[in-house]
What does this fold into?
Amino acid sequence: MPDPLAVRLLPADAALPASHLAAIGFGAVGRDDLDLVLPLPPLATPGIEVWPASGVVRRFQAQGYDCAVDDEHLFFRRIDIAASDIEAAAERAYRDLLALIGQTGHGELLRIWTYFDELTVGEGDDERYRRFCLGRHRALAAPDFERRLPAATVIGTREPGLQLYGFASRRAGVQIENPRQVSAFNYPRQYGLRSPSFSRATRYGDRLFVSGTAAIVGHETRHAYDAGAQAHEMLANIDALLAQAGGDWRARLLKLYVHDRADAQDAQAIVRERFGAGAPLLVLNGEVCRRGLMVEIEGVFDVLPVEA
It folds into this structure.
């Protein structure tokens, strides 16, 4: 069986493989053969993330999503430029997503990325990210939803509208939580009317999808506005999460989001020191979902085989 969801980071001008589920670009890549181009300017060597297929690919539209399926997996993406009411847009997008996976038979959400503008605009419960979390929770809430939440990332952009993409499977992954952090879905009331609806990671066979991870310990921000100190803290969270998942892990793709361009070089160097100069790494300019957080990292990891 082909390696499932074995994402690759390719040069920004690379030819796409003949069979793939999805190809995602960032910033002004200047090509029209990608499934989605996100308005997140690269702050280092640009690239595209390519998700190979495990079988013949069929492309179609359903429930407001552009989709691709292979033998096992569903790729979905949605662009809602008119999403000025982010709470309503989130609820609608996630209700449609649940209908989609029910319709196709890919009932297990593995990984979701969501990007929209003015992420932290608004005060208190009127903040756009908190309103997004409320709308998403309304769609996903079910008696067992906390045990089935996918890994997820939400990052702010400078262009209007909501853009969402991700993967679902016919097979379930295993939800992984971080012992250094309160599970996001159990955050206290001070962070909004409803907690964020995602898991810290999803293990899927020998692959681990790690959510956007920042300098949060317990539920509190550490080292506010200090990107360098936050980079070390977020990597401590990654190490704790990898240990919790069990086994030894190698990074297949890392994405580092940096709020302030001036912090990119130092934050990248800290990540390179931890994962090595050859680790596939995208460095992107985007807003993290809490004021005072300057950097965030996510990743796809492969478990290393046990030596005999």
